[in-house]
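subagent[fold] <- orchestrator: predict structure for attached chain, return tokens only, no commentary.
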Amino acid sequence: MAIQKPSIPKGTRDFGQADMSRRNYIFDTIRSVFRTFGYQEIQTPAMEGLSTLLGKYGEEGDKLLFRIQNSGEKAELAPEKGLRYDLTVPFARFVVQHQNEISFPFKRFQIQPVWRADRPQKGRYREFYQCDVDVIGSRSQVNELELVQMVDAVFGKLGVRVKIHINNRKVLTGIAEIAGAPDKVVDITVAIDKLDKIGLEKVKEEMAEKCIPAAGIAVIEKILSLQGSSADKIGAMKALFEASETGLKGLEELEELFGLIEAAGVKAPVEMDLSLARGLNYYTGAIFEVKAQDWEIGSICGGGRYDNLTGIFGLPDLSGVGISFGADRIYDVLTGLGLFPTALEQSTRLLFAVMGADELRYVLPLAKALREAGVAVEVYPEATKLKKQFDYADRKAIPFISINGSTEIEAGTVNLKNLVSGEQKAFPANDINSILDFLS
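subagent[fold] -> orchestrator:
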């Protein structure tokens, strides 16, 4: 049999021990913030019925769904399935399916992988983790405020400077209405969402190709060119939106949200971004996008308000809002900026070197006692040259080593060495507290 070259599918990655230490640092930081706002964790299956997923992400999103070939059951009877594209639609399905078991407003978070049949490129993968936080069953904009506060808290803890971009889908609907193309809101949304990537002229060309009237494109250009503070933009748009009740409602919601953000003392800069559209069809109110200020990688968080996502599954008029933290992009930002704590590389605190069978039996109770005290301890599995054991400690960045022979056994002591400072001390083997102080 020919030897097969090991490989993994494009757009996926292996994560080694150092990678996982760093990823868990991100996940643990995010979890800790979510929990301080009263959110609790759930999980949903990797696969969903294809009917659950289709039609929720727009035409472009549907094309990126990974479909699963039926197996293990009669193909003609089995419903089609797909890997989940995000965590929000499965969450809506979960809420409807378990509505009699949960309390509303229902606040949950999920940290799980999602899959998209996208072209792999820098910062874009086919398999990646999302960290979603949503609340459903309340229309209060205090919920939107809490999302902004959680973004502020998470990135404050991670040491990443971010800017939070906010818009409102009702404002985008209002733009389509005053542009004389109320039936083209999706086309307009998709086009202006590309403003940062392709520039204003290309956006105008794309809208023209979608049969948006020239006069309407001129109005949209005027709106996209507005400058000044969020309050300045809202004030200027109120006059333009006199004929759009929906647009005015969106401006009112933005005005309230920015007032709450100011009152709450959010530290990260927050900007009203009229080019922010987010192509997902289910957003109906506020929409969010977060970008790192010191590392170019695109958005690292995104989300928004959805008013009737659960209606698709038979539970109408249940409003929700949420945001997704892109763990893989956050990882790349922290790596690029060198912001991971160096202590993450140290999984083991102390290595017991082994000189022989008697020495092994001597240190085993010590290792047990230290582990029970919460210290990560390894016992080298073989009696071999000390250089090899020192090299092992060095490769794993283990800061302490303990070498014990017949002298230590007879005296009932344990010898410890700090491999960073070179300090070396002997302690009574039963004096666990002194050993712990030396290792701290």
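orchestrator: received. Logging for downstream: The chain is about 40% helix and 20% strand. The mean pLDDT is 91.
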